[in-house]
Every structure is written in C-alpha cells, then in structure tokens.
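pasting input
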Amino acid sequence: MMIRFSAEGNVSKSRMVSRRMFMLTVAKTVVFAGIFGRLVSLQINESKKYRTLSDKNRFREWRLAPQRGVIKDYFGKEIASNEKVYQLHITPENSSDIDKLFFRLKSILNISNERINFLKKKIAKQKPWEPIIVSENLSWTDFSRVNLFLHELQGVKPVVSVARIYPDNSTSHLVGYVSELSAKDLKQKEYLREMAVTGIAVGKTGLENTLDQNIIGKVGFQRYEVNAYGKRIKQIQIDKGQSGTNYDTTIDLDIQKTAANLIQDKSAAVCVMDIYNGDVVAMASSPTYDPNAFVHGIKSEYWKYLLDHRDKPLMNKALSGLYPPGSTIKTIVALSALENDVASTNLKVRCRGVIELYGEKFHCWKKKGHGYMDMRTAIQRSCDVYFYEVAKRLGVDRLSKTAKKFGLGQKVLPGFAEEKTGVVPNTKWKKKFIGQNWYLGETLHSGIGQGYYQSTPMQLCLMTAQIANGGFQIQPRIILDPKNKKNNLKEYIDYKSNNPDDPLPTDLLISSFNLTPLFRNQENINFVKEAMYAATNEAGGTSYKSRMKSKKFMFAGKTGSSQVKRFTAEQREAEIKQNEIVYEDRDHALFVAFAPVHNPKYSISVIVEHGGSGSSAAAPVAKKVIKHLLEKDDARSMRSNYLGGLKI
Amino acid sequence: MFTPRSIQSSLSLRQKLISMDYILIFSVLTLGIVSMFAMYYTAGGEFDYHTKSHIIRFTIFFILFFIISFFQIRFWHNTSFFIYFVFFLLLLGVKYFGLTSSGSQRWINFYFMNLQPSELMKVGLILFLAKYYHRISSNDVNRIKFLFVPIVALIAPILLVITQPDLGTSILIAAGGIGVAWLAGVKIKFFAYLSILFISLAPVAISFLKPYQKSRILTFLNPDRDPLGAGYQIIQSKIAIGSGGLFGKGFLNGSQSYLDFLPEKHTDFIFTLFSEEFGFFGSVFILLLYILIISRMVKIGHQTRSNFGKLYCYGFSTAFFVYVIVNMGMVLGLLPIVGAPLPIMSYGGSSMLTIMFGLGIVMSCKIYKDVPVN
C-alpha cells in the first residue's frame, strides 16, 4: 500500500513539476526575447550614436597654433617677424591639485591674483587635457627658474614657442598688431572658427588684420588614441599645419623710418607713393605706439595711456585722419576749370585781400592782397581770392567730379578696414546728408579746400601722384603682388620718350597701353605741374623756402593750411599769429609734392595737425623725406628690376 | 532478470560516454573556447595571467564535469544534505577565516585557489531542496510544517552572503532555491507572503546596505545621475555594446575594452567585451548557446524518471537562466549592477567550479535517467 501510494504521489508530483516547468519555460522565452530586443535596439538601431560616443571616448585632439607669416618691406627687411619666446603651459588634467599648483607658481613667478582667477575661469570652460598658457612671454631667468622647480610643479610644461615681434615702431600703423583671439573676432571672421587654438594670435588692425586669413596659417592637429585614464596610447593622425603666407610690401623701411622720425614729436602723417604703379613707399603716422605691447596681452596702464592721449596714437592718420585739403586742392580747382573751359590760364583777377559776394566777406590768407594774378601765379602764391572767382565760375558739382576722379572722397588703398572715405561735397551730397540746399558761398569755400571738404593724407598723395604722372589713373597698393608686376604707365612713358614720332594718335596709344586718362587735354595737367614747380622753385612761391637747389633733388609742391576754426574779425584785424592761439585751434599744415621735378617718380603728402602753415610746418618735412627718397631711388629701381626679373 | 541498461546502477565507461548529452557538452565547450579568446583579448592580445589561469581552470573543471557526471545520480541524491552542510560550514568559515578584498569578505584561501563558498551554495541549495521535495509527499508540500525547513535552508546562507556583503550572489542563491520550491508545487501565495515580508523588511535591509550598494540601485534608476561615478559602468558598457554594431569592431579591436573604458571586463563585463568586438551577430550567437544549454537541461529533466533528478535539472536550469539574465540585463543596462558573473564566460574559479559541478550532476541525471534514486 505504501509503495502504491508513494508511486501515485510520485506521478502527481512529476506532473506538477512538469506543468510548472512549462510555465517557467514560457516566461524564460519572453525574457530571452526581451534581451534579444535590447540587443537589436543597442547594436542596430542606436549603433551610430554609440559609435560616436565610443570615438569620443577614445580620440583626443591637440591642436597646434601655426606660425604667422612674415611681412617684409620692399628690400626684404622684416617689418613683422617671429621670435622665439619662452612660455609656461599647464595641462589641468595632469595636475593633482590646481589650486596648490597656482599657489606654488605664485611663489616662483610674479603672477597677479587677477590673472590666476582669469586662468581658473578659463580652465573651468575648457577640456581638462587642453593646455592653458600661464605666461606667454617669460624672461630667460624666470624660465630657467621654473625649470629648476619643475619636479614640484606637476602639470606644468615649459614651452619654447614662436610669437610675433615688430622690429620697428615706425610701421605700427600700417602693419597693425596681433593679439589674443576675442569673442568679437570669432563673430566677425568666419575662418577663425576652426582656429580657436591655445596660443593663437589674431590680426586686429592694419595689414595684420587685412591679411589675417592667409597670414595666420593653417592649424595643425595631433589626434591620439587615449585610454580611460587619458594616457596617450598611439598617434592616429598628425597634421603639422602650415605656417602663414609671407608677404612682401612696397614699403621702404628706411624711408618709413625717416618720415616717422621727422614727425615723431608732432601729431602728423606722411604718405609717399610711386606715381607710376601706386606703390606706397611710406605711410607714417605720429604719434606711434608699440605694437609689441599687444602681442602678449596689453598692460592696462599702457592701454589707458593710448586711449587718453590727445593725439590718438592708435589712429592711422594717413588713412583715417580727415582734414580739409585747404590750398592743396587748388591744383584740382584750376585743372577742373581748365578742363571744363570755364577759365583760361590767362584769366586775371585782382586780389585786394578780400572780396564781398552774396553779402559775405571772403578773405585771402594775405591780408594786403596779391594784386593782379593769373592762374600760374595764383597757384604759385596760393591766392584765395583768385580761386574764389574760379570756383564761382566752375560751380561745386563740376569741381566735385574732377576731385573724385583724382581720388578724393573715396577709399583708395584696398584692404584697410580703418580707411576713411572723406567728403567731396556737391549739391546732391548736401541735400542727402545735410538736408539743405547748396549755398553759393559754400562753393567759394570749396574752391580753397575748406567747408565740407574732408580728405585723408593718402587721398592727397594719390591726387598729387595722378597729376604728376601726367594725369593717368593708378591704383595705390601696399602688398606686392607677384602676379601683377606689369607697369603699363611706365612702359607707356618709356615708349613715348623713345618714339617721339609715333604717328598713332595719343588717345589710341593710351588705350593700347590699357591706361585710363583722367584728363581731356593733357596740356592742362602739364600746366598745373608747371605751376606747382613755380610754387616751390620760383621766388614768391609758397614753398620757396623749402626748395632744393640741386637738380637731382628739385621737387614741385603745393602748400595748404586748413582752418580748424574760423578766424574772428578781431583776430584777423589783430593779425594774430598761428602760434599765439591755443593748440587745438591752430590750422592744420599740409603739403603735397612730386619729385624729381622734371622726371617725376614719387608723390608725397604731409599733414601736421595744428602745425600752423603748410610752408613752415609741412614742407620742410617733405623736403627731407624727398631728399632721402631720391637718394635711394637707384636702389629702388634696381630692386624693382630684380623683382621684375623674378617673374621670368 | 533483464534490466534495461539505463536502470543498471553500474555502467561501463563506454556506456556512460554513449549516454551523455553531446549537444550540451558541445555548447559548453564552445562557450568555454569563446571565453578563452575573450580572456585573451582582455589582456590586449597577450597571454597574461588571467588568460592562462582561465584556460587551466576551464580544462580542469571541464574534466571535473565528466567525473561528476560518472557518479550515479543516487550518490548525489544521498549526499545532497551533506553537500549542503559542507558548503554551509564553508560559508560560516568565510565569516571567520575569510579573505577580504575591496571591502567584502567572500573568499577562503585553499592554496591552489581562493574559493568563494557563496558560489558553491548556489548549487548546494538546489541539491538540498531537490532532495527535500523529492522526499516529502506532494500533499505535504504546502503544509506550514513542511515549509519551515526550506525557508531556513534558504534564508540562512542568504543572510550569511548578504552580510559579506554580496548582494548579487545572494540574489542568485535565492533564485535557485525559490525556483526549486516553486517547481515542487509550493503555492504562489506563500511566495507572495514571503515577498510581502521582504518588502516590509526592505527599509531595515536598506539600512544594512553599504553606501556603494545604495548608489548602485539609485544609479540603475538613473544612470546619468553621476556619469563619472557609479553610472560610469552602465554608460561605458552600453557604449561598448552599441558601438559594436551589426558586425562588431573585430577581434582585438574593441577600443572600449583595450583602452580600459570598460570596468571589470574579464569578469562581469565579459559579454560587453565580446559584443563590442563581434557585434550583434556575436551577441546573438552567445545568447543562442545559452538558450541551447538551458533547453538541453530542461530536456534532460524531462527524460529523468526520478523526481529528484527532475527537480534538480529544472531547478538548476532555472538558476542558470537567472545567472545569464541578471548578467546580460546588467551589462545591457536593463538591471542594476549587482556583481553577477556570466556562467562559463566570466573569469572566476569558484563560479566556473560551481557551474561545472552543477552541469555534472545534470549530466549524471542524463546518464542514469532511468535509475530510481531510492
């Protein structure tokens, strides 16, 4: 009985076990299906996402700042170069205690608390393996001291790097400067977005800014595979990057220095240009500043000094300074009148020192008056009354046309963001920008380069160049373009002197040389040039005192003094001298010239802010620059031939 | 008198070999070989200590698997209680002579290996309960009086293991025991009572949990809670598996593992490592091998005449299933990280020994399937 019962129990137990096992098997199948589903979701559906995450884990990129291209002058002297600097980098990841590290560093080097706070904030923002620069430019003593204590400075890396250096302050304004990449730069310059690398410097002004995209070079990178602890396992890829393009300029550093030295105590600008190809030989602005101060972060005292300075050292006055052209525009007024047949060179006007027109008194700078003037003597002596008459006949619109043709009222030197346009007023302009009708009296002011007229020294230099070269359009340039060395104008002039009997009509000949004449009748240009010769080289001329007697150095120029503030009747009566009034109210002194007088090659413009008269403040500067310029002329021609030869 | 061969209590070696389940053996061997390769590339393609000792262990325990299976099932039935008590004594021994590593006391040093008795207890409890429910009549199964012994046999080792502390293993021990009890016919309501008791005791239990265990549970609920701390393992494991894609990154190319982003890659996260290198197809291959092993065990249980054999095979297959699921669920981010090895694949002598021991008894059931145990 017991056995039977047990057997029966056995059977029922076995059935129970099997039934429950079946239920369990169903449950297991469901669970396995769940695991399978999870595998499908992770390894098929979301595989891409996890692949990316895995690569993010394993690759780290260190980017390398490229070396900036070098900027050279016409003779190959570096005006913006690179120097070896000693730097201190910290890789936050490698330091066990960053606070302690900074504390220790402070005792070794002279680092301010502000700098440390700034660095800590920066560290918090970036990836822990990206290095941060603690000191950009350490002295050799500091650098060796850090190396001595290196064993207790975990995470610190002394680095020998390369940074920008500007050998001469005379080129500050034209070369500009580089400084640390800012948020503003990133916004304005799209190409910088891929260049945000520790230690990269970005051009802020001048050529550094203009050429930045090419001169900055290409960022290199090293991609490493790293393990979970950040240790580099192997190098996956390396791209050394590319140092930036080197640039040659048309600047002659010697002339640039001479010009800068001559105006260093003044607030002034000098421009020198090759009248045939528009090469800017010098472009100096004063006072100047030290561009090297910006490279490794400018000190706040110096920055404040620059901003608060009365004479605005940061401003490139040659391109951004706006001055009424004053009497220097009389060449254009005369030319415009001749071209438009409203006056002949024989037009005679009697100057009594003042004329009254439209119920207003218009004064000549010479109170006693010049007496009877023709156009040549009016230019030579810069008679205002004569040009009131010419301007009255010409009208402001025709004058503005000629002025614009010769380069006023527009940006003339490509690529400088800071260049100003200036103003060449006409009736339309006044209606549009001032909202008023033109008064006839304003035409007379325009005739002597006052009133609304505003021009930059570079514009005046171009204007003079285009008169001096016989009235042909040229395009000023400062970057030597290896692809564009052709000098059509020079070729044309040479051709003409070699083939004086060429039967081809002049205009056809001109167009066959691809030139754009700015004149209707070249005689008019020659007349103006001749009058400028007289102004400098004949007794009674406004710049006669600054003339050069030696044939080699003779030049022709036109002075100008542009009023900053109108003289009151009392001041005029009292014959107040310029140096007796407050500095800010004194006239700007201007002088434009070309040289050598008989076979001109260069044009020059000089502006001395509040310098008084052009003949006493500006012309002497021009004289010295011209002397140096012509002394170096042979060297420049040889260099030009050499560079031209390189093309072939 | 004629007796069928399988009922004969003593068989020749040839007979024993013939009656073994070769699909099961083949699956186990395949997994073993796969695990050797897996171990080889945890070391980045070098024969290091782990790889060597894993190969040696697998070889020894695979032979042991055969030896165990040659013992009559009656022998295992008769010694069940004894084995349980030996394992229990070892567990107690851990309390007093155990080795401590990374904050928990789990091992006893036996010179040739560090034994983890809590692993052995996984099989010990199944053996004990299989015999217990084999012995009592089906009418008594749900009597309170007869529930007392299994509950004590279940709770006592679990308490010892939990206090080591080792949450993962104690859950796995419980899974096997509960599996056998349920298969034997213990009514659902008793499990419900037990779980109610457990839940009401949970706050007390949580206060006993180590901070790292608490954080693991919280992290499971939200892995992004602390991506560099406790959530790190889940995140990195998911990245490794997911980045494997359909075909995997290739042998020795699993960047997540050889660059050390994967934690504990030769133990708990061995499946992750394999998945990364062999992709979806590799993972499914492993999954299928486990399904095959489990279903063969269920089949053997089905063929076994004795209730002891049935309960043991079903119970062990269920426990084996739970081991696989807990580990895979963990590395796939479906379950919290509890520290559960993947059977056969994971590095670890005690775990390997336990699985081979358990499988050996299953095979013994197969060889002696028609032999009554008493």
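fyi Chain A touches chain B at residues 6, 9-10, 12-14, 16-18, 20-21, 24-25, 28, 31-32, 34-36, 38-40, 42-44, 46-47, 49-51, 53-55, 57-58, 225-229, 233 (CB under 8 Å).
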